[in-house]
Amino acid sequence: MKNICVFCGSSLGFDKRFAEAARRLADVLADNECVLYYGGGNVGIMKTVADRMIERGMKVVGVMPDFLLAHEIGHPDVTEMIPTKTMAERKEILLRDSDAFIALAGGFGTLDELSEVIVADQLHLMEKPVALYNTLGYYDGIVQWVERGVKEGYIRQEHYNNLIVSDDPAVIFSRFKEYKPVRLDKWIKDIKEEMR
Q1: CATH 3.30.300.30 holds for 3-194
Q2: Residue 34 in 3-state DSSP?
Q3: Is the entire prediction scored with pTM above 0.85?
């Protein structure tokens, strides 16, 4: 796992422990000589992760739509800034060029990006691990929703098992190495059999 994409908020939030957790993640990535791919922002938790990686002398790649770059919120010190025409193009590049994905605390944009990569992995449009960095239980509500989806038969247990959830970035990175994609043909077959 070399190119790690981090989804996170363009706000800092109210609790400083989220920023501390973001720096811990950056340290784990730097210790493992990873390249950071992220949304390119010079604001919020996005900036916190990028700044720490830059401090550690690591490569940082930002991907940001032109309309956001026009507002001068792009990070001026990243190794490379990739401008895009749309948000969809931004996600396409992040999905294509990253080897794994980690969602830190964030808002609707983070949720959108997280959902896209989970579905892409489920449909085998990619075969890459996805993790929730569950600082202070931030993603507990989503985990409960997924568990309810499994219980009610809307989410397959093996897809839930493939979602990495931890409040420890070292554990997340270790689990990346153990990732095995769920076979598409198996769960499609299971769905068809349920309809009989």
Answers
A1: no
A2: coil
A3: yes
